[in-house]
Amino acid sequence: MAGRLEGKVAIITGAARGMGRAEAELFAKEGAKVVVADILEKEAKEVADKINKDGYEAMAVKLDVTKADEWKKVVDQVTEKWGKVDVLVNNAGIFPRSGVEDASEEEWDRVMNVNAKSQFLGIKYVLPAMKKATKGSIINISSIYGLIGSGAAVAYHASKGASRLLTKTVAAELAKYNIRVNSVHPGVIRTPMTDELLKDEQSAKGILGTTVLGRPAEPEEVAYGALFLASDESSFMTGSELVIDGGYTAL
Question: What are the protein's GO molecular function terms (predicted)?
Answer without folding.
Answer: oxidoreductase activity
